[in-house]
Specification:
The protein is an alpha/beta fold. Helices cover 47% and strands 13% of the residues. Strands 3-2-1-4-5-6-7 form a 7-stranded parallel β-sheet, with helices on both faces. Helix 3 links the parallel strand 2 and strand 3. The longest helix is centred in the middle third of the chain and has 32 residues. The chain is globular. The relative contact order is 0.13. The mean pLDDT is 95.
Amino acid sequence: MTFEEALQTAAQKVNDRDMAPGRLSGKIAVVTGGAQGFGFGIAEEMYREGASIMIADMNTETGEAAAKKLGKRAAFAYVNVSDEESVKNLVIATVERFGGLDIFVSNAGVAKAGDLREMTAETFDFVTDVNYKGYFLCAKYASAIMKMQFAAAPVLWHDIIQINSKSGLVGSKANFAYAGGKFGGIGLTQSFALELAPYQIKVNSICPGNFYDGPLWSDPVRGLFIQYLKAGKVPGAKSVEDVKKYYLSKSPIQRGCLPSDVAKALFYCVEQCYETGQAIPVTGGQVMLS
């Protein structure tokens, strides 16, 4: 199937949906970075509420297992969100498998800590390509399908939801490549929202606090706990546990963010039809908007 054929198929099948019960009944969704961690947790919550889910990830083996774990309304497609052809092929695969696309969750992201002295241009480009450029590419191809569906059925609303970060709301010492991309992502969200509102496509960012149990933080080799320990980001920290205690103390609720917390914000984004271009904090009070 070509992308042009995918556009026509989505328009033709706009009313052909698997109406499993739940808050997202009949919705077709993509979750990038959905094979594990936060992404899989979000996909699991969405599936439980009736959505059909395309798990999109670079890790084929883990992604296929994740889709199988969810059930018959789930499938897997490989994607490298920093590669345009790969993102286009993901959207085509979603339309081929499910007949359309209603919710695109741009969750894939990477983090490489480092201060100005040690950060290389290559590492900076890698982080920015995934976290910033990748969001642009996902929105570009997802919105094209959603526009066609809107033209075929103007009563429909669609959603592009970026899983951003609290680091998109406040700066992050020795983690500027990640924070800069996330700040930029909110700028993209606001701009996309203005452009796509006439097509009833809402675009919002959700800014979670830290999911300490996921691989982004807890991987013993590449996780942020060990990265921050080595970078000296937490004064006086001598172990990963010291770093973790420091971050837990930052939230008045004294725990990390969970996929179920983010899913509640996501459900709000989808269910309402009067808010777009927002950056919604889900930080346990660690970041409070002023």
